[in-house]
Amino acid sequence: MIKERKITVEDQVISFFPDELPEVISDNLKQMKIKHLLTMNTGHAEDTTPKMRADSVSWIKTFLSFPVAHAPGSHFLYNSGATYMLGAIIHKITGQDLETFLTPRLFKPLGILNHDWEKSPDGLNVAGWGLRVTTEDIARLGQLYLQKGKWNGKEILTEAWVNEASSAQTTSNPGDSDWSQGYGYQFWRCKPGFYRGDGAFGQYCVVMPQHDAVLVVNSESWDMQKQMTIMWETLLPAMQTAPLKENEKDFKKLKSEISNLSIPVTKGAIRTSPLTKKYANATIKFEENEFGVTDIQLNLSSVGSTISVNSIHGKQSIQSGWEKWITNKESIIYPFAVPNLYHVPSKIASSASWINENTLQLEMKFVEGIHGDKITCVFNNNHVSISFINSVAEHNKNDTDKRAKLEGTIIS
Questions:
Q1: How far apart are CA 374 and CA 360, in angstroms?
Q2: CB-side exposure of 114: number of CA atoms within 13 Å?
């Protein structure tokens, strides 16, 4: 938009939203500019995102009514609400959401074809998160910046913009290692002198101009600094300016290692249980619960297990292999939702195992997300108790799974 001379980074944020402004417009809000949204220097003392996500009507109004405690440009605070407002400005000018606007200008030229982006109650892409693309697609974005905005000889972004966006425009999080190296326009600076985009639980697009390289990671991590430290201490010393000599033996070994990568499944204490036959086709009825689940049809066979969940939202089925992964073909909204983790459709890979004769465990991995879930079903005659532990809570002591157990009765 700046390249097309439709906006500048000096434009006031409130100038784009005359109908969404609060009754009283503070001096700090008046001073907020596009560059402050880009650099996370809006002046807010708190992240606006939780308040916005709790609003079922207008995130734009929520952002603009949020108190601006500091003068814009004087206080760095990472705030995904600022990124949302950048997308909202694009919509105000063009009438297009961010995904529609970027498709001919960025996605198609770079060959990013199967993107999917969450939307807000305003009907706009959430911008600061929720974009699902492949790891290779993220690498394409990094490569575009490495090439100073050019792709196949065509200028997608100006070199001046790339330099400006990737430079430290503000200080950031003093004393916080790789988060304290400065911040550009939606990019963090890195300790070795690189810059990166990063996302929750270990999603990285690291651009290394000094090495003519881009490093991309998709992961579920609970220590993102540890990940980056491993990158810097392990990869950088091995990087050279000259090409490596060809090594067919090591290349074959690398290909073999990659082709055999897998996520291990949980092994049960027993291979099967007498309950496999007893509950081959069982229906479990539930009282009122937070998921709106009325009943579950449980099908157990020599191949695996299938749970068909009936709820106020309809019927959804998940198939699991016995101590092996089965990837379900359809993308579904997970019926046992965890707020902010499982709220978008995804294919699910699932495995089943008998922990003991009375305990069936189902392990879920969300193929189009980064998280997982574990369901434990304890059978006691005709009573079934079902508990849950999501992958974040399972590995992070500071995060607990607040979902209540499901208590049900086998009626057939």
A1: 11
A2: 5
Cβ atoms of residues 163 and 170 within 8 Å: no
Domain boundaries, the chain: 14-133, 275-410
Q: Angle at Cα 307 formed by Cα 302 and Cα 309, nearest 5°? A: 165
Place of tokens 């998160």: 129
pLDDT tens, position by position, 344-357: 889 999 999 999 99
Does the domain at 275-410 match CATH 2.40.128.50? Answer given as: no
pTM (two decimals): 0.90
Contacts of 63 (CB under 8 A, 6+ apart): 48, 52, 81, 84, 85
Q: Kindly state the tokens that stand for 263.
A: 């996520």
Residue 405 per-residue DSSP state: P
Rounded-to-integer distance, Cα 97 and Cα 162, Å: 23
Question: Within 13 A of 139's CA, how many CA atoms are on the CB side?
Answer: 10
Do 348 and 332 contact (CB within 8 A), yes or no? yes
d(CA 84, CA 81) in angstroms, rounded, equals 5
Tell me if 158 sits within 8 A of 149, measured CB to CB: yes
Q: What's the mean pLDDT when you consider all of the chain?
A: 95
Show the tokens assigned to 299.
């099908």
Under a CB-based contact definition with an 8 Å cutoff, are residues 39 and 64 in contact? no
pLDDT tens profile 225-270: 999 999 999 999 999 888 889 999 999 999 999 999 989 999 999 9
Q: Cβ of 91: how many Cβ atoms within 10 Å?
A: 19
**Phi, psi of 366, rounded to the nearest 5 degrees:** -90, 105
Lookup result for tokens 């709820």: 311
How far is residue 30 from each of residues 15, 19, 45, 378, measured CA to CA in Å? Answer: 9, 15, 16, 58
Report percent pLDDT > 90 for the chain: 86
CB neighbourhood size of 382 (10 A): 12
C-beta of residue 275 within 8 angstroms of C-beta of residue 379: yes
Q: Where are the beta strands (DSSP E) in 113-192?
A: 116-117, 131-132, 150-151, 154-155, 188-189
Residue with tokens 């700090």: 28
Q: Are 328 and 357 in contact (CB under 8 A)?
A: no
Spatial distance between the Cα atoms of 395 and 333, rounded to a whole number of angstroms: 23
- The tokens for 290 are 């937070």
CATH class of the domain defined by 14-133: alpha beta
Q: Do domains 14-133 and 275-410 have the same CATH topology?
A: no
